[in-house]
Design brief:
Blueprint: H1 7-16, E1 25-30, H2 44-63, E2 67-72, E3 75-76, E4 86-96, E5 100-111, E6 116-129, H3 148-176, E7 193-198, H4 208-227, E8 232-236, E9 239-240, E10 250-260, E11 265-274, E12 281-291, E13 329-330, H5 336-351, E14 357-362, E15 365-372, E16 375-384, H6 388-396, E17 410-416, E18 421-428, E19 439-449, E20 458-466, E21 476-478, E22 483-490, E23 496-504, H7 509-516, H8 522-553, H9 559-575
Parallel strand pairs: 13-20, 19-21
Antiparallel strand pairs: 1-4, 2-6, 2-9, 3-8, 4-5, 5-6, 7-10, 8-12, 10-11, 11-12, 14-15, 15-16, 16-23, 17-18, 18-19, 19-20, 20-22, 22-23
């Protein structure tokens, strides 16, 4: 669930490597024939074992104690690796939580004779520490990011952790519905597979990379039986270890093609462990997508299969590039976890950029710009005499923004998804380039997050989504927001640093172009209005708290006086 970096970001990362991360581990392996498949390419199973080994060493270097694999996030394999080429694997701990940590893994390939390097894949694995011999938990020390790249990964790691926890619930629901079950294709050939493996090694727990490699092998056989060819693995949905497998266990792996599309198929894999006596224990599940390539390396058309009563769950792929489709993504409750993750992580990564340019400043309200290819990003920030948690509460209710932001004429709450995600329809003033007097409207997903730990900001992220129940109309120009929102960071003496970001789309650019050119200072007036709104609400909240304390400490006060104060409080809240 990470983002693939651009060439500019790769260059920055190379420069930042001068400050070596103490948890970083590198491994280089030359691909031998024994590591390859029928196409003389490195088998994915072998690559997963190397990736897991490297990441485990990085985790143990930070923890100072043995660690085990808890999960490995979605992996997209951009290129294959041939026999004779060198695999370079780099792993380092992005963030440590209480007893678990996220390790980032980057895999590149090197052709020694052509002097070429290229990226193969990027992955995130979660490792947990094993208890000591006395049964005591090992508490991890925090990671201190040193470079911009490390700061981005550190910030987004908290959001990825949240997605993993919700991902478990999704997979659990799918498995309860029987996503991996027996089935037949149109020719009547069974394409599920049962394999029993005896595990004997020197470790207490079975090596996680080995289990993942076996799961890939089983899935490959199931895919081959459907297409009657040699498939190529393109993506893997998250591996999550739900329990350990130990010495003496028997391992049962089952794979089935859930669905076949025009050029790809999804295979579900389930791993179970059991002893000679006792029930089977579910230890891992994953979904893998395969293609069959022709002689020119192009995907072939696959045979269709008879639909099962339960269709496999396909989620929104958050790693797709922004230029591949419209800015507004379709809203689907089944994809809420991934859309919300993408919303928050995009804002965090925009905030972590360090090449912002100060365009103007007035009374400590600063306007920054950032140009990236064809995209212009804007950042406005200032300190406000309001505690961060209160500013977060006031700003996270988007409907109140019409009271201080002239760009918000109307704001309607469409749907309250949960405590952290909301859908709004916002109406903004007309834009000269879009027709005289024609208002714009936006359908926005608002995702709010509290800090995961001290030093993290509060986040309110906004992006456009599309809803079938709210299609574009002739009365409004439908606008789109790619990435916008607030970060609120606690400062000293109950003040907070409030920063607003906007990755300006064509619909937003006319509102801010005069500010950027220095021809107006509407950004200053809008931010001052926001500051006044926050301070006013803070004072009203303080007044309400004192009022409640006075009522508690003075119960003998007259009923008429109390009634007058209650009426005054009611009028104040009504005015707000």
């Amino acid at each position: 669930r990470g983002c693939f970096q651009s060439e500019e970001e790769d260059e920055e990362e190379e420069e930042e490597e001068e400050s070596l991360n103490p948890t970083q581990v590198k491994m280089s392996q030359i691909v031998m024939p024994c590591h390859s498949n029928h196409r003389q390419e490195l088998s994915v199973g072998q690559l997963l074992k190397w990736m897991d080994s490297t990441a485990c060493l990085s985790a143990e270097r930070h923890a100072g104690s043995p660690c085990v694999t808890a999960s490995m996030d979605d992996i997209h394999f951009e290129h294959t690796i041939s026999v004779g080429q060198v695999v370079n694997i780099k792993a380092k701990v992005n963030r440590a939580f209480n007893t678990s940590m996220e390790v980032g893994i980057q895999v590149t390939c090197e052709d020694l004779f052509a002097d070429r390097h290229w990226k193969v894949c990027h992955a995130y694995a979660t490792f947990v520490t094993q208890r000591t011999s006395t049964g005591k938990k090992v508490i991890l020390k925090p990671i201190v990011p040193q470079t911009q790249t490390e700061q981005v990964e550190y910030s987004v790691a908290a959001e990825r952790r949240r997605v993993r926890m919700l991902h478990d619930d999704i997979i659990r629901d799918l498995l309860s519905l029987g996503s991996i079950q027996q089935g037949m294709d149109d020719s009547g050939l069974r394409y599920y597979l049962f394999i029993i493996l005896h595990i004997f090694n020197s470790q207490v727990n079975t090596f996680g990379g080995q289990i993942m490699a076996w799961m890939v092998n089983v899935a490959t056989i199931a895919a081959s039986r459907l297409c009657q060819a040699h498939p190529t693995l393109r993506t893997i949905d998250m591996f999550t270890f739900r329990g350990p497998s130990q010495v003496g266990d028997r391992l049962l792996l089952r794979a089935i093609v859930n669905n076949a599309f025009k050029n790809s198929m999804e295979v579900g894999v389930r791993a179970e462990a059991y002893q000679e006596e006792g029930p089977n224990r579910h230890i891992n599940s994953a979904f893998m997508n395969f293609e069959v390539l022709d002689k020119n390396g192009k995907p072939c058309t696959l045979p269709r299969i008879r639909p099962e009563p339960v269709v496999s769950h396909l989620k929104y792929i958050i790693s797709r590039k922004q230029a591949e489709g419209p800015l507004s993504v379709p809203w689907d409750p089944r994809n809420q976890v991934y859309l919300s993750y993408n919303n928050v992580s995009a804002l965090k990564m925009l905030a972590a950029r360090n090449n912002w340019r100060l365009s103007s400043e007035k009374d400590k309200v600063r306007l920054y710009t950032l140009e990236e290819k064809s995209m212009l990003c804007v950042r406005v920030e200032s300190e406000v005499d309001v505690p961060a948690h209160r500013a977060f509460g006031f700003l996270s209710e988007l409907r109140n923004r019409t009271t201080w932001d002239t760009h918000y004429k109307e704001c309607e709450l469409i749907h309250r998804v949960d405590d952290e995600d909301f859908l709004y329809r916002v109406v903004t003033p007309s834009v000269p380039t879009k027709g005289e007097g024609m208002l714009q409207d936006f359908i926005l997903l608002a995702s709010k997050r509290k800090p995961c730990s001290s030093g993290d900001p509060y986040v309110i992220a906004l992006r456009s989504v599309s809803l079938p129940t709210y299609p574009p109309t002739e009365q409004f120009n439908r606008g789109e927001v790619l990435c916008a929102g607030f970060t609120i960071l606690e400062s000293t003496n109950n003040t907070s640093l409030i920063t607003y970001y906007n990755q300006a789309s064509p619909e937003v650019l006319p509102y801010i172009s005069t500010d950027i050119a220095g021809l107006s200072s509407s950004f200053y007036h809008t931010f001052c209005s926001c500051s006044q709104y926050l301070i006013k609400n803070r004072l009203m909240s303080d007044s309400d708290e004192k009022h409640q304390q006075n009522q508690t400490t003075s119960p003998e006060r007259s009923s008429s006086e109390s009634e007058t104060e209650r009426l005054s409080a009611t009028l104040n809240s009504t005015q707000l």
